[in-house]
Specification:
flat; mainly alpha
Length: about 45
């Protein structure tokens, strides 16, 4: 993730989380997140 600083990172993540929740995509976002966190062990 490209961030301009810890605060910018937090803002971006927070905004993305709110966007996902507002649209009912929380579960899809969680699946994507686990996909990003686990890929090295899956390969």
């Amino acid at each position: 993730m490209i961030c301009g600083g810890a605060a910018s990172c937090f803002e971006a993540i927070h905004s993305a989380a709110e966007w996902a929740v507002d649209r009912g995509f929380a579960e899809d976002a969680a699946e994507l997140a686990s996909g990003w966190l686990v890929p090295t062990s899956q390969l």
